[in-house]
Amino acid sequence: MVAALASLLFVLIWSTGFVVARAMVPHAAPDLILAVRLTLTTLLLAGAALHARQALPRGRRLAAHLMAGAMLHGVYLTLSWWAVNNGMPAGIMSLLGSLQPLMVAVASVAFLGDRLPPRSWGGLAIAIVGVGCVLLPAIERSGAGSITIWPAVAGIMAMLGIAGGTLIQRGAIAGDGIAISGAVQNAGGALIAIVAALSVRDYRWDGAPILWLGLGWSVLGLSAGGLSLLVWLVRHQGPTRMSMLLLLVPPLAAMEAWLLFGERLGPVQLLGFALALGGVMLGRSTRPARGQDIAEPA
């Protein structure tokens, strides 16, 4: 029951990233937003870790946390936002993101020794088709032929970043507390975002109320809440089962855009939502073997 509620909450929180980014980017430079967001999240989770008396990792575990954060928070967020701001249509970026669970599944089998039953592969395929149906109108409007090489490369690298950061969560760092893990990993992501902001040299920040509201939700909801849930789900369900949840994000974001921005939802998109939901439920219906769950330290 706890895992089911955590999964539902994670998908709901993660899907709001589309709405928040759309609201904030007109008012500030994307890399500056990410640098401020990840730095504030680092301080928030460091305070929580200090209160819970969670020890700071040392040596290789500290380096692994920083690397996971740099990939999961820094590389993924900065490159995906850069790609969209430099010509990558949001619909195609979302479709590219739907391939991330497939990357994680293949890597988990190849490198972590996981075994996925046929129903998991079948559910993954069905869900990806569903996501494609949901995003089809956006892809048709934008056209894949308009994408230049560098946004495409950035989008692919962003997906590799989140896939790699997700897989690292199953390594030696899995025994560390969620708060200290989140603090160190957000610090790793913040370093990437700060370097990106200094490189681009765009420091636009108009201080609009919607910008501050979006920043508050990004720190408390998306980074502190959503990413902590992501780490918890990877540790207790495995990277593949957690990654399948990401396939529900584009359909749910489309529903939110329909409610908030009046974007149209046609029959093909509704069918795609049903396929994505059914595929994820099928793919996640096989429970991980005993012994895979990692008990969280007190």
Automatic annotation (TrEMBL):
The chain crosses the membrane at residues 32-50, 62-84, 90-113, 120-139, 145-165, 177-198, 210-232, 244-261, 267-283. GO terms for cellular component: membrane. Residues 3-135 form the EamA domain. It is a multi-pass membrane protein. The keyword Ligase does not apply. It is found in: Membrane. Keywords: Membrane, Transmembrane, Transmembrane helix. It comes from the Bacteria. It holds the Pfam family EamA. Its main location: membrane. Belongs to the EamA transporter family. This is EamA domain-containing protein. The lineage of its organism: Bacteria, Pseudomonadati, Pseudomonadota, Alphaproteobacteria, Sphingomonadales.
